[in-house]
Amino acid sequence: MIFVGCDPGLDGGIAIQCEDGDKDKWWDMVKPMPTTSVGKKREIDEQAIIEFLDFDHVDEILVTIEKVHAMPKQGVTSMFNFGLGYGLLRGICSGLGIPYQLVTPQAWKKVMLAGYAKGSEYQVASHLWPDVDFRATARCRKAHSGKVDAALICEFGRRKGGA
Question: pLDDT value at position 41?
Fold first, then answer.
């Protein structure tokens, strides 16, 4: 079984892990959400996501997508873009026939950050996968929060097994 975790934001990420959670089997598949430039703006690259998720045996895949919603004091444009990524991921999974489940941030954080302080996502991820580079590029100094969240969402999906 292959598990995929998605943080659907423009600065989100995608992670793939196999069923046993073996640290050696990450397949170098923890990456920032693929984007493309459209004029002066960035948009999610749907074709890159399709290629990323296009496996031969869709019955052996479970995608876990973070369920997003509008929040107070966030801009209309940013919320629209966030919702657009969420909808694109759901649509791509449906179109490819890939089963998916939705998880709220509260639900996956409750499981994955149990016993840790709020905001300790990178600490947990780097503890679980010490050899994974969570930076967006080699030039970055800090971990990419979208990659970190995607990895933890992926692991949440693996632990829950679609339940």
Answer: 87
